[in-house]
Amino acid sequence: MKKLLCCFIILSSAMVFAQTKVKDTITRRANISYTQKGNSVTFKPETPPLIPIAGAPKPSYSYLWELGDGHYSKEAEPKHTYKNKGNYTTRLAVTNNYDNGKPPATRPKKVAVNDITDADYKDIASIADQNGFTIIKNCDPIPEQEMVVVVSYQNLENYVASGKLYLFYNEKQFKNNNFELIDFRTYANEREVKEKTIAAVDDLDDTKSYVASAENTFKLKKYKNTTTEEDLDASLKEANTLYHNVSILEFDDANPSETRNVFYTFKTTPEMIKDTSATVTMRGIFVPNRSFKNHKAKNLEMEIVTSHDPNKMGSNGSFMNYRLVRFKRVKFKTRFQNNGEGPARKIRLETDIPDMFDKKTFQIEGMYPECPICPKGEEPTVSCLDTIITKKQIIFTFKNIYLPGTEQKNVQEKDSTKGFVRYSMKFSEDFHKVKTKSRTSIIFDKNEPIITNYATTRFLPGISIGAKAGYNFYPDLEKSTSYFVGATISPFKAYRFYWQAEWVNALNKYNSATNVVSEVITNANGTRQLERTTTTTENKSVNWEVPVLIRYNINNYIGVGAGIQANINVASEQTQDIKIETFEGDKENILIKTTTSSNTVKNSFTDFKTGLLFDLTAGFARIGPSLGARYVINFEQDFNYFQVYGIWRF
C-alpha cells in the first residue's frame, strides 16, 4: 500500500510539473553551409523560419558575411574566390526584418583552401567614391543584441603609407553607455594601441594653435559624408569631448589604392536609451599617414529600434535643451523599403507635423532616390520629389522613379530597395516645453499604407533659478513688520504642472499683547496703595521658510500653486518692558512712584512651525518677472499671514 501511495505521489508531481509553463530559452540559430571547388567557395545560410508580425509586410532576412580574408558581402548566397591557401574563419550576421523573434545567432565556420584552381581573385572593392573612408553596420541597434560595424579605409595616396584608425563610441550626451565593444577583427596586421590622452601627432608645421568650443564648434560638425580635415589635434579633442570610449588601431604599409576592412562586434547594453526615435552615433577618424595631421572623419548615424523595420521615422530632437533650441533646426528622417515583387514608380510619404514647428522654415536636407524638386503647376515627365504642406502634414511624393523590390527577380543588393527623406524645421515663435509625436504613412504606388513608428521630440527638464522679495502681513499680530528675500528653483520654463522649491529669509518684528495688572496693597502702617504693573513684549526674529509647492501655469501670464512649508526661527530676541506705578489710596488719583525694568531673552533655532500655502502669480508665468500673492495657514494660532512679492525667474 505504501509503495502504491509513493508511486501515486510521484506521478502526480510529474503531471503538475508537466503542466507548468517553462520559459523558452532556446536560441534561434542560423548555420553556415558552403560548397567548395578549390579556392572558389559559394556560401549559403540555413536560417530558422521567420515569425510574421500581424499587419506588417512579409518578413525577410538580410545578411552580412565576413569571409575571413578581409572581404565581406551582403548577398544572401555570396560566391568568393580566395587568393591564397590557408584556413579562413567565416562569420555571418543575420538580421530579421519584420520578424517577431530575436535575430538568429551563428557560429563561425572554418573554410580550408588547399588548392588554387581559380585565378579570378578580386581585391577589396575601391571606396574612392566615398573619399577613401566609410563605416557601415549590419543593422540598427536593439538593446541587448549584437551588431557588426565595418570600418573601411583606402590609401588614396600615390605612395605606401602607415597610419591610424580611431573609432569613437558611447556619446556623453546619454546618461548610460549604449555599446560594449566585445571583439574586433583585422586582416592586414592592424594592431591596437593605447593613448593616455587623445593627443596630437607630431607634424612638420607646429605653429598653429586651436582653441575649441564645446558649445559652438563641436556641435556643428556632423560629418554626414566623409570629410577631409587638416587639424588632427582639434578633431581628436572634439571627439574626446563628445564620446566616452575609443578604439585605436595602427596600420602599416598600405599600398596605393589598397582598400582594407576592419570588423567590430558591439553588444548593446541593457541600459541603452529606449527611445525608439532617438539617433545615436559613432565617429571614425582615419589618419592615412601618421607623420601628418591630415585626416578623414565620418559619422555613423543609427536609430534605436525595437525590431528591424526598414520603414521607420527618426529625429535628432530626442533630448533638447529648451534654453538653446529657439533657433535650432530639428532634423527628421523617414526611411522606407520596397518589399514588393516589382519596382515602385511612385512613393508617397504623408508625415505628421506637430503644431509647435514652423512649417515656413521647412527645408529638405537629403533624399534617396536622389532627384530634383518637382516644378510647381506642371505635371512632371522626369523623376522628381513633390512636396505639399498642409495644416497638419507635409506630403512627400517621389514621382517617375524606379525603386526595386526585395522580391523582384535578379535583385541581390537589398540596399538598392531602400530610400529616405531627410528634412528639418525650426520651432514656432511661441512653442511650449512639451513632448511631440509624429509618424508617417508610406504608400508604394497604389498599395495599402505602411505606418511607421512615432518620432518624438522632448526637452531636458533644465533648471530655473529665481530671485524673490516681498512683505508679509500678519493680521492677528500687533505692530508687525516682516520683510523677506529668497531664492526659488524649478524646471526651466515649465509648460503646465511643475514643482517649485523655495528658500526665504525673513526679518520679522511684532508686539505681543500688553498685559496690565492692578493690585491694592495694605502697608504695615495700615495705609492702602494701588500698584499697577504694565508689561509690554517686543519680538524680533530672523525666520527661514522652506516652501515646496506644485504650480500650474494657466497660460503665459497667470499661474497658481499650492503646497506646504516649514518655518523655523533661526535667531529670535524677546524684550519685555515692565512698568510699575504706585498710587496713594486704592484709586488712580495721586501717583506716588514709577519704576521700570527691562529683560531681554535671546534664542536660536527655536519655534518650528509648519503650514499650508496657496499662491497666485501674474506677469510672465514661465520665465522673467511677475508679481505674486500668497496666503499661508500655519498650524499654530495667530500666525496665518498674507504675502505679496515680486519674483524673477532666470
Number of domains: 4
> What helical percentage do the residues reach?
under 10%
Strand percentage: over 45%
Please tally the helical runs, counting DSSP H or I stretches of 4 or more residues. Answer: 2
Low-confidence runs of at least 5 consecutive residues: 1-25, 197-220
Can you give the mean pLDDT? Answer: 85
Judged by helices, strands and strand pairing, the structural class is mainly beta
The main sheet comes to: 8 strands, antiparallel, barrel
Shape: elongated
Count the beta strands: 37
Structure report:
It is a single chain. With 650 residues, the chain is mostly beta strands. The chain folds into four domains: 26-122, Immunoglobulin-like; 130-203 and 210-309, Immunoglobulin-like; 312-457, Immunoglobulin-like (Sandwich), CATH 2.60.40.740; 464-649. Helix content is 4%, strand content 52%. The protein is built from two helices and 37 strands. It has helices spanning 2-19, 232-242, and strands at 31-37, 40-46, 60-66, 72-73, 79-81, 86-97, 109-113, 133-137, 146-154, 161-171, 179-185, 191-192, 227-229, 243-254, 259-268, 279-287, 295-303, 312-315, 330-337, 347-352, 357-368, 384-389, 393-399, 418-427, 436-438, 440-444, 450-451, 455-457, 464-473, 478-490, 497-511, 515-522, 528-553, 558-584, 590-619, 624-634, 641-649. The strands form eight sheets. An eight-stranded antiparallel beta barrel has the order 29-30-31-33-34-35-36-37. A six-stranded antiparallel sheet has the order 12-14-10-16-17-13, covered by helices on one side. It has a five-stranded antiparallel sheet with strand order 22-23-20-26-27, with no helix packed on it. The longest helix has 18 residues, at 2-19. The radius of gyration is 39 Å and the shape is elongated. The protein starts with a helix and ends with a strand. Mean pLDDT is 85; it is low at 1-25 and 197-220.
